[in-house]
Protein backbone atom coordinates (compact mmCIF):
# COMPACT_ATOMS: atom_id res chain seq x y z
CA UNK A 1 0.00 0.00 0.00
CA UNK A 2 1.25 3.49 -0.83
CA UNK A 3 2.77 5.69 1.86
CA UNK A 4 2.51 9.47 1.97
CA UNK A 5 5.92 11.13 1.98
CA UNK A 6 6.45 14.88 2.23
CA UNK A 7 9.75 15.71 0.57
CA UNK A 8 11.11 19.20 0.19
CA UNK A 9 14.29 21.16 -0.20
CA UNK A 10 14.56 23.67 2.62
CA UNK A 11 16.84 26.63 3.21
CA UNK A 12 18.98 26.44 6.32
CA UNK A 13 16.58 28.86 8.02
CA UNK A 14 13.56 26.64 7.38
CA UNK A 15 11.89 27.91 4.20
CA UNK A 16 10.82 25.81 1.20
CA UNK A 17 10.01 28.87 -0.90
CA UNK A 18 11.08 32.47 -0.69
CA UNK A 19 8.81 35.51 -0.32
CA UNK A 20 5.83 35.33 -2.65
CA UNK A 21 6.54 31.66 -3.35
CA UNK A 22 9.83 32.41 -5.14
CA UNK A 23 11.67 29.22 -6.06
CA UNK A 24 14.51 30.69 -8.12
CA UNK A 25 17.00 30.03 -5.31
CA UNK A 26 16.68 26.28 -5.96
CA UNK A 27 18.49 26.37 -9.30
CA UNK A 28 21.46 28.10 -7.70
CA UNK A 29 21.55 26.50 -4.27
CA UNK A 30 20.24 22.96 -4.48
CA UNK A 31 22.82 20.63 -3.00
CA UNK A 32 23.52 17.98 -5.60
CA UNK A 33 26.48 16.16 -4.11
CA UNK A 34 26.81 12.39 -4.59
CA UNK A 35 24.78 11.50 -1.50
CA UNK A 36 21.80 13.74 -2.09
CA UNK A 37 21.64 13.24 -5.84
CA UNK A 38 21.72 9.47 -5.26
CA UNK A 39 18.89 9.84 -2.73
CA UNK A 40 16.87 11.95 -5.16
CA UNK A 41 17.35 9.36 -7.92
CA UNK A 42 16.30 6.53 -5.59
CA UNK A 43 13.33 8.53 -4.32
CA UNK A 44 12.23 9.38 -7.85
CA UNK A 45 12.25 5.67 -8.73
CA UNK A 46 10.01 5.00 -5.71
CA UNK A 47 7.43 7.74 -6.37
CA UNK A 48 4.22 6.41 -7.87
CA UNK A 49 2.16 9.61 -7.71
CA UNK A 50 2.40 13.23 -6.65
CA UNK A 51 -0.13 14.99 -4.44
CA UNK A 52 0.27 18.75 -4.74
CA UNK A 53 -1.62 21.77 -3.57
CA UNK A 54 -3.01 24.47 -5.83
CA UNK A 55 -0.21 26.94 -5.04
CA UNK A 56 2.53 24.39 -5.65
CA UNK A 57 0.97 23.10 -8.86
CA UNK A 58 0.45 26.54 -10.36
CA UNK A 59 3.28 28.32 -8.58
CA UNK A 60 6.79 29.39 -9.41
CA UNK A 61 8.94 26.82 -11.21
CA UNK A 62 12.53 28.02 -11.55
CA UNK A 63 12.86 25.81 -14.62
CA UNK A 64 9.69 27.01 -16.39
CA UNK A 65 10.06 26.85 -20.14
CA UNK A 66 13.02 24.45 -20.05
CA UNK A 67 13.35 20.68 -20.22
CA UNK A 68 13.80 20.73 -16.42
CA UNK A 69 10.32 22.18 -15.77
CA UNK A 70 8.21 20.21 -13.31
CA UNK A 71 8.71 18.01 -10.28
CA UNK A 72 12.20 16.68 -9.62
CA UNK A 73 13.69 19.01 -12.22
CA UNK A 74 11.44 17.63 -14.94
CA UNK A 75 12.42 14.03 -14.27
CA UNK A 76 9.05 12.95 -12.83
CA UNK A 77 6.56 11.58 -15.35
CA UNK A 78 3.55 10.02 -13.72
CA UNK A 79 0.21 10.59 -12.05
CA UNK A 80 -0.41 13.97 -10.41
CA UNK A 81 -3.31 14.77 -8.11
CA UNK A 82 -3.95 18.41 -7.21
CA UNK A 83 -5.90 19.38 -4.10
CA UNK A 84 -7.71 22.64 -4.78
CA UNK A 85 -10.91 24.50 -4.02
CA UNK A 86 -10.70 25.95 -7.54
CA UNK A 87 -10.34 23.17 -10.13
CA UNK A 88 -9.96 24.48 -13.66
CA UNK A 89 -12.99 24.44 -15.95
CA UNK A 90 -10.94 22.67 -18.62
CA UNK A 91 -8.41 20.49 -16.72
CA UNK A 92 -5.45 18.88 -18.47
CA UNK A 93 -6.19 15.23 -19.25
CA UNK A 94 -3.19 13.92 -17.30
CA UNK A 95 -3.93 15.75 -14.00
CA UNK A 96 -6.58 14.77 -11.44
CA UNK A 97 -8.12 17.65 -9.49
CA UNK A 98 -9.86 16.99 -6.16
CA UNK A 99 -11.61 19.43 -3.86
CA UNK A 100 -11.22 17.53 -0.57
CA UNK A 101 -8.27 15.89 1.16
CA UNK A 102 -9.66 12.37 1.66
CA UNK A 103 -10.57 12.04 -2.02
CA UNK A 104 -7.23 13.49 -3.14
CA UNK A 105 -5.29 11.09 -0.90
CA UNK A 106 -7.38 8.11 -2.06
CA UNK A 107 -6.86 9.04 -5.73
CA UNK A 108 -3.11 9.53 -5.25
CA UNK A 109 -2.71 6.26 -3.32
CA UNK A 110 -4.63 4.34 -5.96
CA UNK A 111 -2.43 5.83 -8.67
CA UNK A 112 0.79 5.14 -6.70
CA UNK A 113 0.13 1.46 -6.09
CA UNK A 114 2.88 0.15 -3.81
CA UNK A 115 5.07 3.21 -4.29
CA UNK A 116 5.18 6.56 -2.50
CA UNK A 117 2.71 9.38 -2.88
CA UNK A 118 5.09 12.32 -2.81
CA UNK A 119 3.37 15.28 -1.16
CA UNK A 120 4.46 18.64 -2.55
CA UNK A 121 3.49 21.88 -0.86
CA UNK A 122 3.56 22.99 2.75
CA UNK A 123 -0.19 23.45 3.06
CA UNK A 124 -1.09 19.99 1.76
CA UNK A 125 1.64 18.43 3.92
CA UNK A 126 0.22 20.22 6.97
CA UNK A 127 -3.29 19.00 6.15
CA UNK A 128 -2.04 15.42 5.74
CA UNK A 129 -0.14 15.63 9.03
CA UNK A 130 -3.13 17.06 10.92
CA UNK A 131 -5.38 14.33 9.48
CA UNK A 132 -2.94 11.63 10.59
CA UNK A 133 -2.22 10.59 7.00
CA UNK A 134 1.43 11.58 6.59
CA UNK A 135 3.82 8.63 6.98
CA UNK A 136 7.28 10.08 6.32
CA UNK A 137 9.17 13.36 5.90
CA UNK A 138 12.35 13.82 3.83
CA UNK A 139 14.15 17.15 3.91
CA UNK A 140 17.08 18.22 1.77
CA UNK A 141 18.85 21.25 3.21
CA UNK A 142 20.24 23.86 0.82
CA UNK A 143 23.13 26.08 1.90
CA UNK A 144 21.22 29.34 1.74
CA UNK A 145 19.39 31.64 4.16
CA UNK A 146 16.21 33.06 2.63
CA UNK A 147 15.14 35.14 5.63
CA UNK A 148 11.44 34.89 4.81
CA UNK A 149 9.01 32.84 2.80
CA UNK A 150 7.03 29.63 3.09
CA UNK A 151 8.16 27.55 6.10
CA UNK A 152 8.56 23.79 5.90
CA UNK A 153 5.75 23.42 8.45
CA UNK A 154 3.66 25.97 10.28
CA UNK A 155 1.23 25.07 13.01
CA UNK A 156 -0.59 28.00 14.56
CA UNK A 157 -0.27 27.70 18.31
CA UNK A 158 2.46 25.11 17.92
CA UNK A 159 2.05 21.37 17.88
CA UNK A 160 4.78 18.89 18.68
CA UNK A 161 5.00 15.95 16.33
CA UNK A 162 7.64 13.33 17.03
CA UNK A 163 9.67 12.17 14.05
CA UNK A 164 11.91 9.11 14.16
CA UNK A 165 14.94 8.81 11.87
CA UNK A 166 14.55 5.86 9.52
CA UNK A 167 17.48 3.50 10.16
CA UNK A 168 19.79 3.11 7.19
CA UNK A 169 18.33 6.08 5.34
CA UNK A 170 19.87 9.37 4.38
CA UNK A 171 19.97 12.09 7.07
CA UNK A 172 16.71 13.99 7.51
CA UNK A 173 14.45 11.13 6.38
CA UNK A 174 11.97 10.48 9.17
CA UNK A 175 8.97 8.38 10.03
CA UNK A 176 6.07 10.29 11.58
CA UNK A 177 5.85 8.70 15.04
CA UNK A 178 3.03 10.64 16.71
CA UNK A 179 -0.36 9.95 15.19
Description:
This protein is globular. The chain is built from five helices and ten strands. Mean pLDDT is 85; it is low at 31-35. It is of the alpha/beta class and 179 residues long. The protein has one domain (3-176): Dihydrofolate Reductase, subunit A, CATH 3.40.430.10. A hairpin with a 7-residue loop joins β9 (163-165) and β10 (173-176). The relative contact order is 0.27. It has an eight-stranded mixed sheet with strand order 5-4-3-6-1-7-10-9. A two-stranded antiparallel sheet has the order 2-8.
From the structure above, extract its key features.
single chain, 179 residues, alpha/beta, Dihydrofolate Reductase, subunit A, 8-stranded mixed beta sheet, two-stranded antiparallel sheet
**CATH domain class name:** Alpha Beta
Q: Could you give the distance between the termini?
A: 18 Å
Give the SSE order as H and E letters. EEHHEHEEHEHEEEE
Gyration radius over CA? 15 Å
CATH topology annotation:
Dihydrofolate Reductase, subunit A
Q: Which regions have little confidence, pLDDT < 50, spanning 5+ residues?
A: 31-35
- Strand content of the residues, in percent? 25-35%
Structural classification: alpha/beta
Query: In which order are the strands of the major sheet placed?
Result: 5-4-3-6-1-7-10-9
| Number of beta strands | 10
The shape is globular
Portion of residues in helices? 10-25%
User: What is the CATH architecture annotation?
Assistant: 3-Layer(aba) Sandwich
Number of helices: 5
Overall tally of domains: 1
Instruction: Average the pLDDT over all residues and give the rounded result.
Output: 85
CATH superfamily: Dihydrofolate Reductase, subunit A
The largest pleated sheet is described as: 8 strands, mixed
